Amino acid sequence: MVFSKSEEEHVTHVSTVLSRLRANNLFAKASKCLFHVSSVEYLGYVVSSEGLKMDQAKFQQILNWPPPRNLKALQSFLGFANFYCRFIKNYSKKISSLTSFLKKDSRFPLNEEALRQFHQLKEAFTTAPILSHFNPSLPTIVETDASDYALGAVLSQVSDSGKHPIAFDSRKLLPAELNMISMTRNSLA
């Protein structure tokens, strides 16, 4: 992918890339190349000058996903969800009841709390923000939080148009971390 600030600069950048490919006996298949486009679908994401967002084709798939009725269906849904977790604030917290059903002795169907989380997670994906590209010249903010069972963080940057998320991250607390006092968990986050 070649990003440029202007059309003129883009022509120069593409020319440079193609020259270097040619100089090293490397080839780009023309049918797989896109030139002078403002966004591109790439590995399940849409990359544009605005930032990174989920591929719109995935939204309908998420909306139509039925509640998992067995372990394999739950693993399939969580595998899909984990791929896009970078778009969801406090993701680990939002899947805590669902992941409890991954244990060997769990029984299906999902309980009320897990079903609620399943539907809330589907909603969160369909309203996921565009993640801005990191700009080293802008002020950067790291916000962290800890709950009784998960840690979360948001990396954002501030521009003239406001605060924009760059990335979200979260994880469940490890068994040893569950016993920590709140202040220690917040420091860990």
The Cα radius of gyration reads 21 Å
Please report the number of helical segments. Answer: 7
Whole-number mean pLDDT? 88
How many domains?
3
SSE pattern: HEEEHHHHHEEEH
Whole-Å distance between the termini? Answer: 34 Å
Q: Which structural class fits the helix and strand makeup?
A: alpha+beta
Count of individual beta strands: 6
Give the low-pLDDT segments.
Answer: none
Strand order of the largest sheet: 1-2-3
Helical fraction: 25-40%
Reported CATH architecture of the largest domain: 2-Layer Sandwich
How is the biggest beta sheet arranged? 3 strands, antiparallel
Assembly status: single chain
CATH class of the largest domain: Alpha Beta
What fraction of residues sit in β-strands? 15-25%
Shape: globular
CATH topology of the largest domain: Alpha-Beta Plaits
Short précis:
This is Reverse transcriptase/retrotransposon-derived protein RNase H-like domain-containing protein. By secondary structure, the protein is of the alpha+beta class.
Describe the protein.
With 189 residues, the chain is α+β, with helices and mostly antiparallel strands. It has three domains: 42 residues, no CATH class; 72 residues, Alpha-Beta Plaits (2-Layer Sandwich), CATH 3.30.70; 49 residues, Ubiquitin-like (UB roll) (Roll). Strands 1-2-3 form a three-stranded antiparallel beta sheet. The protein is globular and about 60 Å long. The two termini are 34 Å apart. The model has no long low-confidence stretch (mean pLDDT 88).
